[in-house]
């Protein structure tokens, strides 16, 4: 009986070691994927089309989310965020939403590369805003056209209760209005 317990303990130890080794490999793989996704986000923020393409070719996820901290610079900023029930300090957006909303000379090519790699055209940020809403509010006509060509849903509604058309109307983006009607 004693001999059987010893074999069982050795077998159990071996199983635990194998599980730990496998878990270590999975953790390393997850960390490598996060680093690759971070490289993709940084390349997009630098407006680096070659860097974006390289990160995507190496396996970065086109559905990566870009989290950043809002800068509270004045009381009107705080009032604006509170009035719209927005997140005051942290913003979590899909990378295509950040690219569509922020300016850059390569944004159209970067957005196309992300969409070609399989990015979800209708993914939302923590305020339920889509890339189409961001592009419409920012008067980014080529990006609105591109997003619509890839099947962006015009009818999605943000936490504010706005569609992409409402964003364009609110900010008086007359060039965008005909595209969204």
TrEMBL record:
Keyword annotations of the record: ANK repeat, Repeat
Residues in ANK repeats: 127-159
Classification via SMART domains: ANK
InterPro entries associated with the record: Ankyrin_rpt, Ankyrin_rpt-contain_sf
Record flagged with keyword Protease: no
Protein name in UniProt: Ankyrin repeat protein
Native species: Armatimonas rosea
């Amino acid at each position: 009986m004693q001999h059987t317990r010893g074999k069982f303990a050795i077998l159990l130890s071996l199983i635990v070691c194998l599980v730990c080794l496998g878990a270590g490999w999975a953790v390393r793989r997850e960390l490598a994927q996060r680093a690759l996704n971070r490289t993709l986000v940084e390349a997009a923020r630098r407006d680096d089309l070659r860097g974006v393409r390289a990160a995507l070719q190496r396996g970065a996820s086109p559905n990566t989310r870009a989290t950043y901290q809002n800068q509270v610079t004045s009381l009107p900023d705080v009032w604006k965020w509170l009035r719209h029930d927005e997140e005051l300090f942290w913003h979590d957006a899909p990378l295509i939403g950040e690219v569509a909303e922020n300016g850059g000379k390569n944004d159209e090519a970067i957005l196309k590369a992300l969409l070609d790699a399989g990015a979800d055209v209708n993914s939302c940020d923590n305020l339920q805003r889509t890339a189409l809403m961001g592009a419409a509010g920012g008067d980014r006509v080529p990006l609105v056209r591109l997003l619509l060509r890839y099947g962006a849903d015009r009818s999605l509604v943000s936490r504010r209760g706005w569609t992409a058309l409402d964003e364009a109307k609110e900010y008086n983006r007359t060039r965008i209005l005909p595209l969204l009607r």
